[in-house]
Give the backbone structure.
Amino acid sequence: MIEFTFWDILRNLLLAARWTVLLSLAAFVGGAVVGMIVLFFRIAKNKWARRFASGYIALFQGTPLLMQLFLMFFGLPMLGLRIEPWTAAVLGLTFFASAYLAEIWRGGVDALPRGQWDAGASLGLHYLQELRLIILPQAFSITRAPTVGFLVQLIKSTALTSIIGFEELVRTSNAINNATFEPFKVYGLVALIFFVMCFPLTQYARLLEQRAAAR
Amino acid sequence: MTYSLDFGWLAGATGAIARGAATTILLIAVTTLAGTLLSILGAAGRRNGPLLLKRAIGVYVEVIRNTPFLVQLFFIFFGLPSIGVRLDPVLAAMLAMTLNMAAYTIEIVGAGLDAVPPGQTEAALALGLRPRQVFIKIVLPQALKVIYPALTSQIVIMMLESAVVSQIAVRELTYEADMLQARTFRAFETYFIVTMVYLILSIGLRRLLVGGGRRLLGAGVS
């Protein structure tokens, strides 16, 4: 049997943590892009577009992420796509993130006074210009704290992709645990690594919140 | 390659799905009660306890909120036996869910306690109530009324997160889905049905909590 020292365990975990970081970033960027599209539908003038977006958001917020990942993993091959755990993980987390981000930003858009739209219209801006120049910049700026807060939630959610076989921090820790039989140490370290990633962001979100409250 | 959906297995699987759903409901019911109680104690301790307790609660909240639930679950189920604490899967799941939920709801309950005007406490003390009576009869009901919607959301989120406890072989809804798809080889259909069951459960749970809150805490709860 191979002997694992403390440093072997830590090094392997840190190497695996790269994938956790990469997956979080990919899902956040993907989620922001898709979330923007959902946001457009959610605040559209067309009633059916709004209903569709509401349903989309309710669906992703009303079902477990684990089920969404399973449906990605087993569903996409039926459409003829060859699918790796990485693809399923990125796509699953992207859709999950898009629903939450769209809802957060929708809150920002709704919080703006009606006069902002009216002022934009009276300047002769059309709908898309109003959104781009007046509404969205303000909506993003007042929802910065919950957006960062959601990023923390997303990082934690990447742990679930270990279950569909994506080789990130938790899956690697399961393998190490099976080899070393030191679950207390291994899972303790995993928790510590996640904490080191998430805690600064949590503090940053708190700072943004306080700043917004002071304004 | 063409793939045709097949739901023929469903007739023989309703029992398993219902049993799994019942376990999920049991888990979230226990977690809701224990988690709410723990968060009331935690929030009160964080405001009025000795300094050491305040610090300990603060650390607990930050540690739980900044680590994934799955890792907490593995730590409790696989890690604790090596220091002599051995729990069976259902107990480990309930403990992990309660500890996880309480970390979020301590902050929620705390915000509710802060929202009750200090005049309420002063008035109650002036009427001769003891401090514990003041907390239980005057401050807490008002605080719960304020935070009830946030508490409801947190309970629903916890119910959805409970899907993860299938990983330590608790026979709840997701575990039954895993077993079904292994038997029927109809993975997509199985998870699709079970996802819909979760959706119904989360909508139902929210309705139940909102309705119950309206009756228990008075109107004004949306």
The two ends of chain B are 49 Å apart (CA to CA). Chain B touches chain A at residues 1, 3, 62-63, 65-72, 74-75, 78-83, 156, 160-164, 166-167, 174, 177, 181, 187-188, 191-192, 194-195, 198-199, 202-203 (CB under 8 Å). Chain B is about 75% helix and 0% strand.
